[in-house]
Amino acid sequence: MDVYLPIANLSVNALVIIGLGGLVGILSGMFGVGGGFLTTPLLIFYGIPPTVAAASASTQVTGSSVSGVIAHSRRNGVDYQMGGVLVVGGIFGTLAGAGVFRVLQQLGQIDTVINIVYVLLLGSIGGLMARESLASVRAMRRGETLPPKKRRHHPLVANLPLRWRFYRSGLYISPLAPLILGFVTGMLTILLGVGGGFVMVPAMLYLLGMGAQVVVGTSLFQILFVTLASTMVHSLTTKAVDIVLAVLLLIGSVTGAQIGARFAQKLPPEYLRLLLATLVLLVAARLAIGLGFRPAEIYTVELLK
Amino acid sequence: MRLARLIAAFFAALLLGGASEPVLVPEVSQRDIQIQYGFTGAELLLFGAIVYPGGTPPARDSDIVVILKGPPQSIILREKQQIAGIWLNAASTEFRSAPAYYAVASSRPIDKIVDKRTAAIYEFGLDNLQLSPAGTIDPAEQRRFLSGLVDLNRREGLYKQQEGSVEILEGVLYQARLSIPASVPTGTYTAETFLVRDGQVLAAAVREIEVRKFGFELFVATVAEYQPFAYGVCAVLISLLLGWIGGVIFRKI
């Protein structure tokens, strides 16, 4: 079933894109991440221009985080105050990211930078997650329970001036910390088309020291608004949001997310984290290999307007 | 209608028969290509008649060259090189008028029909494209970039050279088939037909083909370009709605 994408200017097989969205949806439902870190590389691999892939993937992440935010807010799992600060940082991040995007595009280095940032991010976060989850899986096998980590924010965070009380997160820290965190993930959203959940969740846990019960909900809340801002920024600057592509991806991912959520209930969380870590590392390895190997196309064409 | 036009032109040419030069009466199977939801490319039939003064074709064979060309584009071509183990865009050049699409079909191999100079003048063949390069002037480098562009576009079906694919019937009717892939840009395309004998171009004629988006695809592309704010708001609303509906439906199951 061929469908013509009016912005990407090419025909794709609708079933392939829906299937791709479904696959990402299953993973995002299982692991509670947006899945943008998979969508963008897979779309590029399928032949969608990188800019259109990143822009449309961020639109898709908006849609796939809605139901999560609703579910978590019912359970009181969203710290709106913290989320608000993150969103403000995130919106500034998307604007700054758009500027960086344009400069890199003019230099012709946007693709390489996207790839390198992906490799570094996924490699380091995947590595950290793998280490942590391997430790807990081993402990579980031996029937021990790891001593619960003392929840503390990072000393760097503690040194920032101006402190606010974040009641739901159980924190008394400077709002500058989440503001900076939001800014960084906002930039990632524009550049990579990712929601940033896989950066945000570990940072909230280990840098800010937020309570685990509000981490996922608050991160989804931030992702919802920042990907929304990112879609707007892309629409106004790169004009690369392909609405047909986003809808096809969403049809798949919304369905897949529900299936994934059901899988997740059947697996122990330690194994889930290990699986996610493996997946993240695999994507990072694939991209790293791609950087070093001679690419299929040596030449690329960019239109001048 | 088209046939009527062709026949009319044919007889008009016959009446003008006093002229000593042959005349081409070309036509294309589709003058308006509409890109819609299921568009996977189009196949064009370029055909027509060669009208000779006096009405009889000469004993010696003539050749036909057909060139279908897309709108010229200003492009930057970037070349990846391996630097410190990483492949990245290292060199680039600008072409001010690279056709978005270029296909040439001929009744015999081009180097058998005309000499190099004539081929260059009429841009017969992929080796003879005039792309108005800007920036680097070094001819060796220009050739490298040019062959890189041609190779890339050839594999994407945007550039093609089909020598020997033009059929000539009874020395007066010719036809060629050229396909356009789905990824072509919109704009005005030209179908040029050349009649060649003894290395000389005796007659040439042009038809224009309009490639445009149509219906929903045109609407989406236009709104995205001219109403970017409204487009962004719509994209956001649609994704919110789909996400929300999905959550509601699956909670009930």
TrEMBL record, chain A:
<feature type="transmembrane region" description="Helical">
    <location>
        <begin position="240"/>
        <end position="259"/>
    </location>
</feature>
<feature type="transmembrane region" description="Helical">
    <location>
        <begin position="271"/>
        <end position="289"/>
    </location>
</feature>
<dbReference type="GO" id="GO:0005886">
    <property type="term" value="C:plasma membrane"/>
</dbReference>
<keyword id="KW-1003">Cell membrane</keyword>
<keyword id="KW-0812">Transmembrane</keyword>
<dbReference type="InterPro" id="IPR051598">
    <property type="entry name" value="TSUP/Inactive_protease-like"/>
</dbReference>
<feature type="transmembrane region" description="Helical">
    <location>
        <begin position="12"/>
        <end position="38"/>
    </location>
</feature>
<dbReference type="Pfam" id="PF01925">
    <property type="entry name" value="TauE"/>
</dbReference>
<feature type="transmembrane region" description="Helical">
    <location>
        <begin position="171"/>
        <end position="199"/>
    </location>
</feature>
<keyword id="KW-0472">Membrane</keyword>
<dbReference type="InterPro" id="IPR002781">
    <property type="entry name" value="TM_pro_TauE-like"/>
</dbReference>
<protein>
    <recommendedName>
        <fullName>Probable membrane transporter protein</fullName>
    </recommendedName>
</protein>
<keyword id="KW-1133">Transmembrane helix</keyword>
<feature type="transmembrane region" description="Helical">
    <location>
        <begin position="83"/>
        <end position="104"/>
    </location>
</feature>
<feature type="transmembrane region" description="Helical">
    <location>
        <begin position="205"/>
        <end position="228"/>
    </location>
</feature>
<comment type="similarity">
    <text>Belongs to the 4-toluene sulfonate uptake permease (TSUP) (TC 2.A.102) family.</text>
</comment>
<feature type="transmembrane region" description="Helical">
    <location>
        <begin position="110"/>
        <end position="130"/>
    </location>
</feature>
<feature type="transmembrane region" description="Helical">
    <location>
        <begin position="44"/>
        <end position="71"/>
    </location>
</feature>
TrEMBL record, chain B:
<keyword id="KW-0812">Transmembrane</keyword>
<keyword id="KW-0472">Membrane</keyword>
<dbReference type="InterPro" id="IPR019088">
    <property type="entry name" value="CHP02186-rel_TM"/>
</dbReference>
<feature type="transmembrane region" description="Helical">
    <location>
        <begin position="229"/>
        <end position="250"/>
    </location>
</feature>
<dbReference type="Pfam" id="PF09608">
    <property type="entry name" value="Alph_Pro_TM"/>
</dbReference>
<keyword id="KW-1133">Transmembrane helix</keyword>
<protein>
    <recommendedName>
        <fullName>Transmembrane protein</fullName>
    </recommendedName>
</protein>
